[in-house]
């Protein structure tokens, strides 16, 4: 399974993806985060950034991207339904991340009931050359790459999976690794509209 | 005072978009465009710094513009600017016949000139950021300029660069 996903990811990345310079992406994303940090301040302060609000906004932006991105993902990769959540994890890592940003985060730390795993990012193009603001708070409060959580959440929601995604560590904060925890909340069943005869 | 009331009344009768959300006022739109330009400016500064590090610093304004059309455009959009015109007095007009951010946009040609205008207006939104990129890159290389952009036919885009002190 893992090798099949890796093969699809590699193949699609090579032949069917329009590429863009990575540094353009890094710079643009950094600029957006910096702007959010300036815009979203704690009420009644001028320049005290509300990092929690920044995290939420990044997640929301990603969510809106994910809702649309899944369409492109399915069209490009031609993949069908995954038979279990472990397969889904492989798809996210080896096809999704590969096709859109050319990385394959490692899947690890499965929970006993296989409904939760870690994505371990050995590289992260969004965070190249990045340093967090030196205000004594960003290191503890800002999840710089939080947009990725939203993207996964939005994309999964469109294929009937409600998940929760959040970063649990980030090298930018001085942690040893950058890891995201992804947890399956529930499979969204098709619901009939009420009173639909 | 009456002026204020007038503005409020105008805001309340804003036309609704197809999504049922009130259309933005021109004031919000201007602010949004400025914001997009400012974001681009910062990206342009960074790109110019990053991609000019290995090459000798361009000496004349024309050299700077050429660097922009070739190296920077290639890095940012994977193609070069198709046409560069200048009056040799500080005004440069860059034309990209197939500007990548606009390349997937389309207009319903059967729907006539109204659809065309609407389509171009939607495309216009995507030109503020790249205009900012140009302005930022020029500033990083020592040229103060104002940049305006427009598309008269998708997917082409024209950027007019007016350097400080330019004569028309």
UniProtKB/TrEMBL annotation, chain A:
Pfam families: TRAPP. Keywords: Endoplasmic reticulum, ER-Golgi transport, Golgi apparatus, Transport. Belongs to the TRAPP small subunits family. BET3 subfamily. It comes from the Eukaryota. The keyword Endoplasmic reticulum applies. One of its GO terms (biological process) is macroautophagy. Transmembrane segments: none annotated. This is Trafficking protein particle complex subunit BET3. One of its GO terms (cellular component) is TRAPP complex.
